[in-house]
Inverse folding.
């Protein structure tokens, strides 16, 4: 196997594929990068058993300057190979498998020889034979991930909650995540209805990695589902992830239908106030801030307190404050994550009681996006 290529084009795809490669794996060959040279181009593959990423670099794209002299395949130690390629002195590089699995990498006057492995021993990627696929714009898909993945659990004690629950039914696509302290739910109308109903749980870590790869050159993301795998197609890049097994809890019953006390805020202004209040609450062991709402006076006040440092109190700007007087405490970090997911918009916050979860929705579109936070008992 022998080829030469533009180093910048190669490094870009190498970085993408490297996201799936881990140095901590029970299958030694998965610490390597699989390279296959064929007539139509160069295929790079990386996997850690949970996610697999494969990309194709085309020979007919002039920017790649890809010239394949001999076809073949090799698995190279990913960490060393990446470091070598990124430090080569010139804009082009040549890779040549010279003796068995010994591989020579040359660029300008620099030459490295590293030991590779037999590509035939590399695990096969999952086969997803469904013809049913869902296509969403990259921007929308990235936003769905950003808005829901914040609520996945980081505790492995309940593995099912470490994923985002995707439900596709007709032309409705719903994504929901909860760690039992908070919940985030986003609904989107699909451009074309699916022929089947899908109910799957995708690991939050997989979606976070996928989100980093959706760029301006990926206008659309195509999603294909099988029994235990999901495949995302981003142009010439294929991103595979395993699905989590089990039944996701019924989250619809957690969301209160209406609130006794409601108030509208500007999300960035409320976020700034919560950040100020949490400066002191973070120094306290219980890390809570308190919100008091008095519709009778039209006043909303936030308090942060640390016995060792001091306290903070701030009157908040609000609109449409209605209902009963209320005093409620919550984790400010959950609130900050929720508020960041709304961006530059007005939100409606609905409370039922001091110990019941409260909801945040955008005032313009109350049906399709909701964040829920469970308060903290302070007495």
């Amino acid at each position: 196997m022998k080829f030469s290529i533009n180093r910048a084009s190669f490094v870009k795809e190498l970085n993408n594929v490297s996201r799936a490669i881990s140095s901590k794996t029970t299958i030694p060959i998965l610490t390597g990068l699989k390279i296959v040279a064929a007539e139509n181009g160069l295929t790079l593959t990386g996997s850690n058993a949970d996610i697999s990423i494969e990309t194709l670099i085309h020979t007919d794209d002039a920017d790649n300057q890809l010239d394949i002299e001999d076809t073949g395949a090799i698995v190279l130690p990913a960490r060393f190979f990446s470091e070598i390629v990124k430090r080569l002195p010139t804009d082009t590089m040549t890779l040549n498998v010279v003796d068995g699995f010994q591989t020579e990498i040359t660029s300008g006057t620099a030459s490295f020889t590293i030991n590779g492995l037999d590509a035939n021993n590399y695990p096969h990627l999952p086969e997803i034979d469904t013809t049913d696929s869902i296509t969403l714009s990259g921007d929308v898909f990235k936003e769905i991930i950003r808005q829901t993945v914040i609520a996945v659990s980081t505790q492995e004690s309940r593995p099912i909650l470490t994923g985002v629950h995707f439900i596709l039914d007709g032309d409705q696509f719903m994504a929901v995540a909860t760690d039992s302290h908070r919940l985030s739910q986003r609904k989107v109308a699909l451009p074309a209805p699916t022929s089947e109903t899908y109910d799957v749980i995708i690991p939050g870590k997989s979606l976070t990695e996928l989100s980093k790869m959706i760029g301006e050159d990926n206008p659309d993301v195509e999603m294909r589902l099988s029994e235990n795998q999901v495949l995302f197609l981003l142009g010439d890049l294929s991103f595979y992830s395993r699905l989590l097994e089990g039944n996701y809890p019924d989250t619809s019953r957690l969301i209160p239908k209406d609130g006794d006390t409601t108030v509208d805020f500007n999300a960035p202004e409320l976020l700034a106030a919560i950040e100020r209040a949490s400066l002191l609450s973070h120094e306290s062991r219980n890390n809570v801030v308190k919100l008091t709402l008095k519709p009778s006076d039209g006043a909303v006040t936030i308090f942060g307190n640390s016995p060792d440092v001091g306290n903070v109190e701030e009157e908040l700007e609000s609109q449409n404050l209605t209902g009963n007087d209320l005093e409620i405490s919550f984790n400010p970090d959950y609130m900050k994550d929720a508020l960041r997911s709304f961006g530059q918009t007005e939100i409606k916050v609905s409370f039922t009681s001091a110990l019941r979860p409260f909801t945040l929705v955008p005032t313009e579109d109350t049906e399709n996006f909701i964040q829920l936070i469970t308060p903290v008992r302070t007495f």
